[in-house]
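Tokens for Winged helix-turn-helix transcriptional regulator. Go.
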Amino acid sequence: MTEAQQGHNKILSLIAEKPQISISALAKQCEVSEKAMRITLERLKAENVIKRVGASFGDIWKSFYRLLWKQNNTNYGKENDK
């Protein structure tokens, strides 16, 4: 598994634990800058792995990695599906 995939899995795990987690909290937990986290999240959104749902205040992250992994046999969330 590549370093990027490990990073994506960590982000997805954090989102699964706390769907309302902020970008700054994700960045801090993953030990990256907020800018780097925003770029990564944009990539995951573009790949339809995650999306932000709700009003501008109190919105949550939704993760579709289990569905995508089953459909596309990707590595997203592979450890969490066991």
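Residues 67-74, 76-82 have pLDDT under 50 and may be disordered.
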